[in-house]
Design goal:
42% of the residues lie in helices and 14% in strands. The protein is of the alpha/beta class. The longest helix is centred in the middle third of the chain and has 19 residues. It binds zinc ion.
Length: 312
């Protein structure tokens, strides 16, 4: 049975050899030589979505967009939201602010040039907006982004900001307000566990994941799910890496497609941008409640919406 709340579905569009877990300068220097599989894997996702009539947000890496312009246009032509995954997939934790600015500017311009539509959203490689890279948030505002989906409110060895708000909220940066759209998590006892997608989507048996998502959904916030095209590609060439990275990357790849189909049958999804339209007021209230400068946040965010720069 369909529920009242519509959730956000997103995909980080990158090649299987670009993932941070297997990153090395040597591998980076060989990107041009590896077999490209991103187009056929993304088309598989587009096909699944179109059969269900579901729209989603695609955070496309600039490096991929430059080489697969037709794919970017197809994503937009099929009614999906185009958003940015940055250009070169360098972790923000390895970038200086100037490098980050160049990266997010270059990717936004490229995507907008190819598709002819505005890009509002950004997601960092491996969710690397963490405590020490919060400087990235005002830069996103300055570069014309309206929302970010990079802060994962969990503990993890490579990313995460434990204690960050686990639901949609407005962040008042030094350069103006920015919506933050964190991937879904669920607090169980003292632990906050990720239930949003990626390795976790493949780790839990589907009935357990469904149960966790149903509990999270009952709290009233939209779920924010994410997957990568390479997660639907069990045939992809194997890469060398640490034991943990290898387990995380290759676990249950042969089950992702069937799980995604079940997820699409069990929960209603749309683009992140569409969910921002519907959570706006809740978001403002919560952000005001959670922030010491309540009036300021609400006032600035309201003006932001009223000027037409937001998603109201
Ligand atoms: Zn990525």
């Amino acid at each position: 049975m369909k529920r009242g709340r519509v959730h956000a579905l997103s995909f980080d569009v990158e090649e299987h050899f670009q993932v941070s877990a297997f990153w090395s300068d040597e591998r980076r220097s060989k990107w041009e030589t590896y077999e490209s599989r991103v187009e056929r894997n993304t088309e598989k996702i587009l096909d699944l979505l179109s059969r269900r009539g579901v729209r989603a947000t695609f955070f496309v890496l600039g490096w991929v967009a430059k080489r697969h312009r037709g794919l970017v246009r197809t994503i937009v032509d099929q009614g999906h939201e185009l958003a940015s995954h940055g250009y070169g997939h360098e972790l923000i934790t390895n970038q200086h602010p100037d490098q980050f600015r160049d990266d997010v500017r270059k990717s936004k311009q490229l995507l907008e040039d190819i598709a002819g539509v505005p890009v509002h959203g950004y997601r960092a490689p491996s969710f690397t907006i963490v405590a020490q890279t919060r400087w990235a948030l005002p830069i996103l505002v300055e570069e014309g982004y309206h929302y970010d989906s990079s802060i994962f409110p969990i503990r993890h060895d490579r990313y995460g900001m434990p204690g960050a708000l686990p639901y949609y909220h407005c962040i008042e940066t030094a350069s103006g307000p920015l919506w933050e759209v964190p991937p879904s998590t669920l607090k169980i006892g003292p632990l906050r566990i990720p239930i949003a997608g990626g390795g976790y989507f493949r780790l839990f048996p589907y009935p357990i994941l469904r149960r966790l998502l149903t509990i999270a959904e009952a709290k009233g916030d939209p779920l924010v799910m994410y997957l990568h095209p390479w997660e639907l590609d069990p045939e992809q060439p194997r890469m060398d890496g640490s034991w943990l990275s290898t387990v995380r990357h290759y676990l249950n790849l042969d089950k992702t497609e069937a799980r995604l189909k079940r997820l699409l049958a069990d929960f209603p999804f749309t683009t992140i941008r569409n969910t921002l339209d519907t959570v706006g007021q809740v978001c403002l209230k919560r952000a005001g409640f959670a922030n010491r400068s309540n009036v300021n946040v609400q006032d600035r965010a309201s003006r932001y919406r009223a000027t037409g720069n937001g998603h109201a």
